[in-house]
Structures are given as structure tokens and as C-alpha cells.
Records
---
Amino acid sequence: MKAVFCEIAGKKYPLVYSAGAISRMTSLFGGYENIQKYMTNIDGMIEHICEVAAAMIDQGCKYMNLTGEEKPENAAVDEDGKWVPLTVQEIEVFATDVGELARAIGEAFAQPSAVQVKTKESKNA
């Protein structure tokens, strides 16, 4: 798993597409199969993007706090270095580039399907 970062109000937030994010989104949208429908429906699209971003940022902050991965410049951390997620309302107020937020969400959705394979050269080759 890898976090994807988005910038909101000058701070970088991690987005992670995890089981926790999926669970939150399915309860928001009434099932996994409805996520794409809501995300592409122009009516309420910005609201839905903010809701999905909040779920993925929450999971991203938990992931980064648990793994201790390196923090980028302008990371959204508190004085103890812990990642601090945003609420839906904070995202609605502070996010000014919804297109960039949607792009980051799409990139985070793609992360679980990206498989990295490390191989060793065979001695017999």
C-alpha cells in the first residue's frame, strides 16, 4: 500500500484506499457498487468528492501514523509529528482545487491494483 498526497490549504494530506475507507464509503453510498455512480453524478459531486476525500485522508493519516513513513514537506502533522485528518466540513471549506482532489482520489483508488514484483537474478541464468 502506498499513500497518495493531496494539498489542502497549504498542507499535504495522505490518502489511502483501505478496508476502512471502503467500509466508510459503502455506508455513505449504500453499497460498494454505488461508489462510482455517486462519484460521477454531477448532482452533489463536489459533496461526494469531499466525503470520499475525508474517508481516505482519515485512513491515510492512520496508515502514516502506524507505519512511520517519511513525511513530505508541509505535512499536516501536529506538534508531536502525528498526522491530523480533516473533516468533511474542513475539506469543503479549505479545498479550492476540487479537480486536483478528484485526481488524487483516483490515483489512490488505483494503488491496490498496482503490483510491484521484485525478482532476483538466477545464479543459473
---
Amino acid sequence: MLHLLFAIILTVTPFQIATATPGDRELRDMPVMVLYCDEDPGTINIGGGKEPMPETLVENGLCTPAEGVSLTFVLVRKEWDFEKDDPEEDWEVDANSWFARCDMDADGRCTLNAPEGFDIVLGVFLHDATVKPGYTAASFQRTTHNFTEFAGYGLALIPNGDPVGEIADHQTLALNITQTDKPANVLTEWDVEDDTDDTDLYLATNSDGWVSNIVKPQQEIEISLENVTPGTKISAICSANDDASADVHVVVDDDDLEIHIPDTQSDIRCDIQIGS
């Protein structure tokens, strides 16, 4: 039997995806690194200038490169005073906000071409579905800046006491987002029912138009497509990959999706089409 699915399609004006640009800001490369470590190694100084260097952590066997782990960076504050403002407050993300995704290579590295300046704040968001079960961030810095030659972002993932598994062990909701049948560059905002972290979660699609997050049976998930112009035609079709009896309900409301995860352990896939 074919997967039972439910889709609502809104048809309004022609599609449009906003281009993620930093306005008049200069862009400069900033190194990013993620490591799996046996214990908290302290600050990972990927930007250089301080010890211990990440290469030393790997050579000593304390850490290994976290290949495949992903981070999304978003310009969350355009005007920030380091003397009086909290970088984690008053975030403003809209359709024109700059964003970029970093997928770690075999060395656990990625180069981020990000807007430069100490008066702006970049929010950092971990794609939990790309992290091995049994690991958690040792000390997750939610914000960063790109303003000196030593700028960089490092993250250590350490055991949390749960059994260590493989990425495929996660139950995930994966979105395949296309724009006129081609992979789309989209910033998604996730609101997951029963999530104790009240911080906005922004996750960008990869180069193939995919983005995913960990879910549980019977959760309600709300997802906004941040850089898709309101009123754009969007269609969504969802199904359970390995459970033909599971009904996956999705409702499209302008540029928002409401998805109900059925009572199943199966991964869920949603194909999202922007434009005709």
C-alpha cells in the first residue's frame, strides 16, 4: 500500500526566495571546526593565536573530527553595542537576513564566508540530527563574531552518558525543499512541541535542498520558511519512510508548515515545492 499522505497547497502570487545578503557589509572567511572528544577540551582555538591548537587535540587522541556535523549561522543583530547589549537578546531575523550553513568535512572543518564587524551578532545553530546519539555540546556558544584575523568558531561534542550510536539511529523529520524542481537555499525556523529550549532554532538547507531535525512520535512541529516571500505558492507532501500505515498530516499556511508526527518510529520525509 502506498504511504498515506495529506497535503494542502496554497496558490497565490508567483514564487520568490529572498537572497541572503549582508547589505553593505564586507564578507571574510572564518574557519569553523567541530570535534568529537572524550572529555571537555576547553576552547577549540580554530582561529589560531592560542593553545591548545585543535590539531594537537586530534594528534593526542583526545578528539576526532566530527565529519558531517552541520551548523547554521544567521545574522541575528545588525546593531550591537558590546559595552551594554546582551548578544543573545533582541534578535531580529527576517526574509533578508544573511545566513549560511557549514557542513564539516573529513577534518571536521568548514570555511564560513560571513559578514564582518564587531557591531553585529551571528547566531549559531547546531543541526542535532547530524550529531551521533550519545554526544552533546560541551559548551555551546549561541553567538559569535567575525572581526579579526583570529576569528573562528570551534565546538566540542562530548559523551552525555547515553549509549553512543550512529546518525541513522535518530528519528528525523527531513524536508526536501525545491524551487521550480531545483534544490532551494532556504532558512527554516523550527518550533518543536515539548522542546525545553525556548531559543529560536534556525536551520538552513544543504546544497541538495535538504534539512532535518530530530523528532518523536506524536509531536507537533511548526516550521517557517524564513526567506520565502509571504503569499508564495507552496505545496507539501509528507509520508513515513518505513511505515505505510502511518498518516502524516501537514498543513500549509502561507510560508508556515504545521506537521503532526504520527505514532511511529519511522523517519518522516516531506517534499516541499516552492513555485509551480
